[in-house]
Amino acid sequence: MAKRAYPLGKVYRLLEPGPVLLLATAGKLRPNVMTLSWQMPMEFEPPLVGCVLGNMDYSYGLLKASRECTLNIPTAELINQVVEVGNCTGRDTDKFHDFGLTPKPAKLVSAPLVKECYASMECRIADTRMVNRYGLFILEVVHAWVDTAVKQPRTLHHLGNGVFMVAGEVVRTASRMK
Amino acid sequence: MAKRAYPLGKVYRLLEPGPVLLLATAGKLRPNVMTLSWQMPMEFEPPLVGCVLGNMDYSYGLLKASRECTLNIPTAELINQVVEVGNCTGRDTDKFHDFGLTPKPAKLVSAPLVKECYASMECRIADTRMVNRYGLFILEVVHAWVDTAVKQPRTLHHLGNGVFMVAGEVVRTASRMK
């Protein structure tokens, strides 16, 4: 799949519907990847994203140390990888290798893109003041990629306990909401 | 529809898939309601929710002053109300009245529930330290209601520009993720 640069001012549209993400970090020994659902847009442009990670997550320390990550949006055909990535730790597992995901060099950050995902955002930490209290990382998206061939991405939305909703019908309204 | 109290420890499951919400406040003259998509769970129990509101939103001031609101989850049959509520301001509009929504007394907060929504959360402000900088309100959910007759809620997920995705197929996996 061929990905193109996606306008930073539209990045909120990738996140606002609430898809499950794969967060990738450069790692010390090897790149790592985790499943993440606690995310929301926080600003249109430059695009800011709030993400909550548990302080027991291996990626929590990697993100805090490297101050960079990528947020990647998987679609329904990657559901097994999403579940497997979410059920083990990168402390003792090479998740990219073991689950058939491909780390691909990013343009502006050291963390890799996840090639199999239909969209990816390269992020740098913008604010860590709420990390210790809530695990809340405020990230700035500095570059974004989208596979423009995917018109209606069948994103995954976690309903809890390993149950996922797959994105359904799309409805256009005359709303003036951004 | 008959709503029942929903366990606080499961509230994250209502928000994690990323549905559009109707945020209701008590208001000065009358109750008010706004459309909100920038939300995420921040803690399991007691349940915390992060919400980003624009400081030009009428509800921003109402929430800051009253320190209470409700978060209500509409389903697809309410799409017109969601759009209309999102396209005007409560400064000069009685949105509940004009758009056929019913404010219903909550149990623990002064803000009303939106009766037509399939689920509602009663919230109090837990942390305002990021309000001035990011419009980020951290709310604690103190009581939750769900219409237990709705098994697969057709929630709305905003893709930007008035385009909505309606919740589709549900897939159960053997994941151990919470």
Mind explaining what this structure looks like?
Two copies of one chain form a homodimer. The first copy, chain A, has helices at 12-15, 58-66, 79-86, 95-98, 131-134; strands at residues 3-5, 21-25, 32-36, 39-43, 48-52, 68-73, 103-104, 113-114, 119-127, 136-147, 156-160, 163-172. The first copy, chain A, has 178 residues and is of the alpha+beta class. Chain A has a single domain, classed as Pnp Oxidase, Chain A (Roll), CATH 2.30.110.10. Chain A starts with a strand and ends in a 6-residue tail after the last strand. β12 of chain A pairs antiparallel with β12 of chain B, so a sheet runs across the interface.
Number of helices of chain A: 5
Q: β content of chain A, as a range?
A: 35-45%
CATH topology of chain A: Pnp Oxidase, Chain A
Distance between the termini of chain A: 29 Å
Q: Can you tell me the overall shape of chain A?
A: globular
Task: Identify the most extensive interface between protein chains.
Answer: A-B, 53 and 53 residues
Structural class of chain A: alpha+beta
- Give me the Rg of chain A, rounded: 15 Å
Main CATH class of chain A: Mainly Beta
CATH-defined architecture of chain A: Roll
Task: Give the oligomer, counting copies of the same chain as homo and different chains as hetero.
Answer: homodimer
The CATH homology group name of chain A: Electron Transport, Fmn-binding Protein, Chain A
What is the averaged pLDDT score of chain A?
96
